[in-house]
Design a protein that fits this description.
Layout lengths: L2 H10 L6 H14 L5 H17 L7 H15 L3 H15 L29 H8 L24 H17 L6 H13 L6 H30 L5 E2 L16 E2 L3 H15 L6 H15 L4
Antiparallel strand pairs: 1-2
Length: 295
């Protein structure tokens, strides 16, 4: 889908009809088309939302701004240039000065733990989790030019697009918004489950390419998380899609032992006689990429 086609669809959403949201879509378009840089786009967007933030509106209109950015990632994120522009935009927004009230205090969302505008990008992590990286056990509205229909499988391409953006944000994002968690979940769903039955192979088509994409685009960052035992919880319970068996089963978080397990699983999937060449090829490339970083 082209940037223009995405923007046309994005503008039609009923909850984005506010002038600030329409302007944000226009600004994202000019950024993605190379007409403005990320800093200028961030300034333009902030100037439209800050008066509303000062009014203390609840819910915050910024949630819809993040929804627009996440929508662009989900629809256009397979284009690495687009994903890189969106990462730069968020970094530039995060670098803006705090939005303050009449007393000079930084404005926070209704829940103070979410941080301040703009530095902490409040609510972005939640919106990304719910509207960009999630896969739901329901039919979805098809997107022209991307999805063949509205079935469960139609979410495969948008998920891969969002993962491309997420992996690039893990590498270059300024403000943490939970990407290590999303990477771990993706690897669990993609390669820590069997792919023997027809239903498991159907899931592999959905989940193996995103899991491999995390390694191909953010392998060094993920290896570093493993080296530092990031969020490691040995023996912690884990869940998998549809309650299938969990092949790892040794706990959550990152470790070099789990890195080695992932390397072996990508190799196993690459040799599977029951999966498509496309799935096996990206698994093979992920396994090879992991070799560059050692055990």
């Amino acid at each position: 889908m082209s940037v223009e086609a995405w923007a046309d669809a994005a503008r039609r959403r009923e909850y984005r009809q506010g002038a600030e949201h329409q302007s944000a879509i226009d600004t994202v378009v000019t950024l993605l088309q190379g007409h403005v840089d990320a800093e200028t786009a961030a300034d333009t967007i902030a100037s439209n939302y800050e008066p509303l933030l000062k009014q203390g509106l609840n819910p915050s209109p910024v949630a819809t701004l993040w929804d627009i950015v996440c929508d662009a990632a989900r629809i256009l994120g397979n284009q690495k240039k687009v994903a890189a522009c969106l990462v730069s935009l968020l970094n530039s927004i995060s670098a803006l000065k705090d939005v303050t009230d009449d007393h000079g205090d930084a404005i926070t969302p209704a829940w103070s733990s979410a941080g301040v505008y703009w530095k902490d990008l409040p609510e972005l992590a939640m919106v990304f989790r719910e509207s960009a990286i999630g896969v739901y056990e329901i039919d979805i509205e098809p997107v022209d030019g991307i999805e063949e229909g509205g079935g469960w499988d139609a979410q495969a391409v948008p998920l891969l697009n969002a993962t491309t953006f997420a992996a690039m944000y893990l590498v270059g994002g300024r403000q943490p918004i939970g990407m290590p968690f999303h990477a771990e979940v993706s690897l669990m769903q993609g390669i820590e489950v069997p792919c023997e039955t027809p239903e498991q192979q159907r899931c592999a088509i959905m989940y193996v390419p995103p899991a491999a994409t995390w390694i191909l685009l953010a392998g060094e960052s993920i290896h570093q998380l493993c080296k530092t035992d990031h969020n490691r919880k040995d023996g912690a319970p884990g869940s998998t899609p549809s309650n299938v068996s969990w092949l790892w089963g040794k706990g959550r978080g990152y470790s070099l032992e789990r890195w080695a397990f992932w390397r072996g699983r990508f190799s196993d999937i690459a040799r599977s006689p029951n999966l498509s060449d496309e799935v096996k090829d990206i698994a093979s490339r992920a396994a090879s990429a992991m070799d560059k970083y050692g055990s």
